[in-house]
Every structure is written in structure tokens, then in C-alpha cells.
Design a protein that fits this description.
This protein has one helix and six strands. By secondary structure, it is mainly beta.
């Protein structure tokens, strides 16, 4: 495995999207954690980055919106770095 396949992120609280209810509204589980922790995330799992959240895929078709500690420019530069 090449080292550039992963990115080190400092992630905290997150929202897990479990799917949709009968009215087509997202079923969201909010997980609040104290502080942030470092994680290695496969770049292939990252779907988008906003100024507050990183959206990644998860098990069984779920999605997770993670809060991150770094600033947007730092994350962008890490993702674009080869």
C-alpha cells in the first residue's frame, strides 16, 4: 500500500446518516465526543470537504459527517499533495 492512499486527520464529533425514513427524510445519529483524536483515513473514502465537515463513506452504505480540527486549507493541501 502506498503512503499517499491515507490522510492523517484530527476528527471529533460526527453525524452518521443511516438512510431515509418512509417520508424520504434522512435518519441521522449524532455522536458527540469530548475533544478530537487522530485517525488515518483512506483518501478513497472521502467524498467532500467543507469548512466544517469531512464527508466519508461508512459501512453498509452509510455516510459520516466528521468535524475536524485542522483548517480547510490544511486539509485541501494534504488531499492534493501526491
Amino acid at each position: 500500500m502506498e503512503k499517499n492512499e491515507f490522510i492523517e486527520l484530527t476528527l471529533g464529533s460526527h453525524n452518521i446518516v443511516h438512510g431515509y425514513d418512509k417520508d424520504n427524510k434522512e435518519i441521522i445519529e449524532s455522536v458527540h465526543v469530548e475533544g478530537f483524536s487522530k485517525k488515518l483515513v483512506a483518501k478513497s473514502r472521502i467524498k467532500s470537504v467543507s469548512e466544517k465537515f469531512i464527508l466519508t463513506d461508512y459501512a453498509e452504505g452509510r455516510w459520516i459527517y466528521w468535524e475536524y480540527q485542522e483548517d480547510f486549507e490544511t486539509i485541501k493541501n494534504k488531499l492534493l499533495k501526491e
